[in-house]
Design goal:
single chain; alpha+beta; Rossmann fold; Dihydrodipicolinate Reductase, domain 2; 2 domains; nine-stranded mixed beta sheet; three-stranded parallel beta sheet; 9 helices
Length: about 375
């Protein structure tokens, strides 16, 4: 496991996935057998890596990735380090005969993303990219409504994402400073369009074209040492995409994403889906629906105070099962994919599609026009 001293790698992948899997006794296979992950943590800072390993009862750690890749007993290489290094590290691991699994984006540009996806495909090894949003309880409930035909003809999706990331002068920053430097792989479009691609494709319809404008709303921020620096990466983006829905009908998706917005909605991210037979709004955990027959009739009257409470007019979709951590669920799928060849669709070519949408969005912003997103051949 490389890059797990960072926030996402440590919390979601190491602690809430691999350590949690070890505590539960391993991953259960189809025949009832158990597979126990035995991670070795690899990073540049020996002190950090050793402390992290000891804190979670792990005995194996090191700073030499090349040496770790020589081990015949370790079969999977995982990377949650910097995006700029990712294609090189994945290629090195594949050439060492390791199955690979990684955070997104899988690269900072489409050429490198396609190149590493092709290398993985030709190797015959197993490979995967994190697509954690698909396993969120809110989106799983939304997908259940879709599969049940609740929406009728799906019309549109409105995605609202983000919150205020403190500049660092008055209050401490809560995201790494590199996120706001394009030269270090930062940027809202690169970070989040990869997520929205797999969410749109899997839940609402295949992306066919996109129009996007980005912005650097906060031009100066303060880093971890309290020093001011110029923000060179976009901290917000506003996009519209044309989709081909699962029934072949057109669906319009609007995506607002910002690190410079204050939240007044149900969650830090919400997906509002409208259809002819019903609508639904999903957050990270909850999902609320309103059917055609329960849709109220509001009256537009600017001369009188609105008496309807529109938030109260939606029905909660109940928790019909126990929802585990989304990162952990996908880790279990990948381990079963490696050990017993369980079908697995969240591969590096799927990760490359996310980078394709990133480049299309950046091109749209630069050229101020709609950009087609053709089927990606890997």
């Amino acid at each position: 496991m490389h890059g797990v001293t960072g926030r996402m790698g440590m919390n979601q992948h190491l602690i809430r996935s691999i350590v949690a899997i070890r505590k539960q006794g391993g991953v259960t296979l189809s025949n009832g057998d158990k597979v126990m992950p035995d991670p070795i943590l690899v990073g540049r800072n020996a002190e950090k890596i050793e402390a992290l390993a000891k804190a979670h009862g792990l005995s194996r750690w090191g700073t030499d990735l090349d040496e770790a890749l020589k081990s015949k007993d370790d079969t999977i290489f995982f990377d949650a380090g910097t995006t700029q290094m990712r294609p090189t590290l994945l290629a090195k691991a594949i050439r060492a005969g390791k199955h690979v699994y990684c955070e997104k984006p899988i690269a900072t540009n489409l050429n490198e993303a396609v190149e590493i996806a092709r290398l993985a495909e030709k190797s015959g090894l197993k490979h995967g990219a994190v697509q954690d949003k698909l396993f969120l309880p809110g989106l799983r409930k939304l997908d259940m409504l879709r599969r049940a035909g609740f929406f009728g003809k799906m019309l549109s999706v409105r995605l609202e994402f983000g919150y205020w990331v403190f500049e660092g002068d008055l209050q401490p920053i809560q995201r790494p400073s590199w996120n706001y430097r394009s030269e270090d792989g930062g940027g809202m479009i690169l970070d989040m369009m990869c997520h929205w691609r797999y969410v749109l494709d899997n839940l609402f319809g295949e992306v066919k074209s996109v129009s996007c404008i980005g912005a650097t709303h906060i031009p100066q921020r303060w880093d971890e040492a309290g020093k001011p620096y110029k923000a060179t990466a976009d901290d917000a983006a506003y996009a519209t995409a044309e989709l081909v829905g699962h029934n072949g009908e057109p669906v319009i998706a609007q995506m607002n994403m910002s690190w410079a917005t204050r939240v007044r909605r149900d969650d830090l991210v919400t997906f509002h889906v409208d259809g002819t037979h019903g609508s639904a709004v999903a957050g990270l955990s909850s999902c609320r629906a309103q059917s055609r027959v329960t849709t109220p009739r509001p009256v537009w009257n600017p001369d009188e105070k609105q008496m309807m409470n529109f938030f109260d007019q939606w029905q909660e979709v109940p928790d019909s099962q126990t929802y585990d951590n989304g990162f952990k669920i996908q880790w279990e799928h990948f381990i079963r994919h490696v050990v017993e060849n369980e079908p697995y669709k969240w591969t590096l070519p799927e990760g490359a599609k996310g980078v394709q949408l990133v480049e299309a969005a950046l091109q749209s912003w630069k050229e101020r026009r709609w950009i087609d997103v053709p089927p990606l051949k890997v």
